[in-house]
Design a protein that fits this description.
Layout (H helix, E strand, L loop, with lengths): L3 E6 L6 E11 L3 E11 L8 E12 L6 E8 L3 E3 L13 E2 L9 E2 L2 E2 L8 E13 L3 E7 L9 E4 L5
Antiparallel strand pairs: 1-2, 2-3, 3-9, 4-5, 4-6, 4-10, 7-8, 10-11, 10-12
């Protein structure tokens, strides 16, 4: 997978944002998403912005099958003053921190070593919402590079 990135200015908030999924890969034992999100509140904005990022991965039963077993890593919202930049948010190590969502399940999908003829299917997604004089939302998703809903991983994708 090639890096997926988005750099834009919010039409409703003026925020300058960056979203990136730099890698989505199998490391020999886990499916891992490397991603970063941040927002800058420019000096010509009239007031604060609220930055709300989240990341998720989801398992599929086939490349274009039904999605199941979603794991989300929702970060706490951050208030950003004029001229300041949010922290650089990255996913993991745990998702679903709210008890009603599963309570801290691992974000990196530990699937073990894949067998030679076995395939698994996952999707990665990064999302950012900014509030301040209006609302803007952005997302990047591995589906933008595939013709299917999910990325297929095999033992050949390992190190």
């Amino acid at each position: 997978m090639k890096p997926i990135w988005l750099y834009e200015v919010g039409p409703n908030t003026g925020a300058r944002v960056s979203l990136e999924i730099s890698r989505f890969y199998y490391d020999g034992s886990s499916i891992i998403m490397d991603s970063t999100i941040y927002a800058r509140n420019p000096t010509d904005n009239p007031g604060e912005i609220i930055v709300s990022p989240w990341f998720w991965t989801q398992k599929y039963d086939a490349p274009d099958g039904r999605g199941e077993d979603e794991h989300r890593d929702t970060k706490p919202s951050e208030v950003i003053a004029v001229g300041e930049t949010s922290q650089y948010f990255t996913p993991g190590p745990n998702t679903d921190p709210e008890e009603e969502l599963g309570g801290g399940q691992p974000f990196h999908r530990n699937i073990g070593t894949l067998e030679k003829d076995k395939e698994v299917y996952y999707k990665a997604h990064a999302h950012l919402q900014v509030d301040g004089g209006g609302v803007d939302s952005w997302e990047v998703d591995t589906q933008s590079q595939t013709v299917t809903a999910a990325v297929t991983f095999t033992w050949e994708d390992g190190p």
